[in-house]
Amino acid sequence: MKTLKVTELLGTPVLLAAEKGDELSKHIRNSLGLLTRSIEVDFSGYQFLSSAFLNHAFGQMCIDEEWDVEKFHRTIKITGLDEDDKDELSVALDNAQTRLRMLKKGIKPEELFERIPA
Amino acid sequence: MRFYGIKRESLGQLGVIGRQIQSCQGGCVELKVEFVRPYCVAYMDLVMQGENRKRVLKLICTNPQVNRYLKQVGFEYLPKRARMASPFPQKDIIRINRFNGKPVDIESEVVAWLTDDVKPFLPEVTPRLWKKMVSNLWEVVHNGILHGESEAGVTAAGQFYPQKRYMEVAFYDAGHGIAKPVRAFLSKNDMSDAACITWATQLGNSTRPMKESAGLGLHLLREFLNLNGGVIQIVSGNGYYGAVANLPPDIQTLRNSIEGTLVNIRVNYDERLYRIKGENL
Hints:
The complex is a heterodimer of chains A (118) and B (281).
Chain A (H helix, E strand, L loop, with lengths): L1 E4 H5 L3 E2 L2 H14 L7 E4 L5 E2 L1 H15 L3 H7 E4 L3 H23 L13
Chain B lengths: L7 H15 L5 E4 L6 H15 L5 E4 L2 H10 L19 E7 L3 H16 L8 H20 L7 E8 L4 E8 L5 H8 L6 H9 L17 H10 L2 E14 L5 E19 L13
Parallel strand pairs in B: 1-2
Antiparallel strand pairs in B: 3-4, 4-5, 5-7, 6-7
Helix pairs in contact in B: 1-2, 4-5, 6-7
């Protein structure tokens, strides 16, 4: 299985900006092909990670590819994340699933918030 | 537990100060105050930046101690003739920092500022909690830059008060504020600024494009402040949101409004070691 080492690829242990998530996502998509159906993404050596980074790196991929969480984990093996950031990843993937379901049903997100007091 | 609060009316007065600066006809504004807090410094820095793009405008205080303080925090619009009191202990000051540019370009700068300038004034936190706090505080700056759409970016300033044993750090952007995108997103034109801020502080709510998901990114920071007895205050437009420890948030409409969004955070300095729930040492 091919391994992408995130901190080497992005040249930094600070993974906060959403743009860096986009960049990682591009690398992953470029590496996945007909012959490479799964890939390891190794985070070892990182310092800081934001939810925006994870949403752009992985959440968006799930939406674009219409992957469920199982398909995501079959395709992308995440290593080197600490426990808290594994939780953040789960939240990013769950949010992507929610938004994907909304998109498929044609639901506008604002309709979910109709009961907000003015 | 004792809380030291900044009255919401004081935050509301910022709008008055801002309008007086903007309407000043001469080349120097005189500020009659006995002291200024970091939120006021951050606010005045951005307002003065905006004015100085159009003309040369200085700001002077009648109180020489305030002039000295402003000079030490790096406020660059003091006139040379400003009367100064004796210097304050420099070690208690968190100097003005302007974050401007694409988030990806300022990321390291924000981390360095938090680590070198802010962290020394926080109570002891585990490395694991610190990582999460950095990503939360990053979201505050990031939201200011991204959502504020302000060309001047975000100004941050802070101060440690050793006798009162707390520190304050404030972030201000002069952008379009929280309410505009929230109203547009929810199609609710009659929603008050205060209700918009409240909506934006709830976990998972975001006006970012549908494909993304995030609130103001303050969830873990709020939990930390709850434990610490700290405070977070947000002013945007004429909306005010203030949360003290575990008490229900104070949500109000202020008499005066400001442009953009101000976030003020107060952290008590105590001897406890803060860690993430369930974290083993």
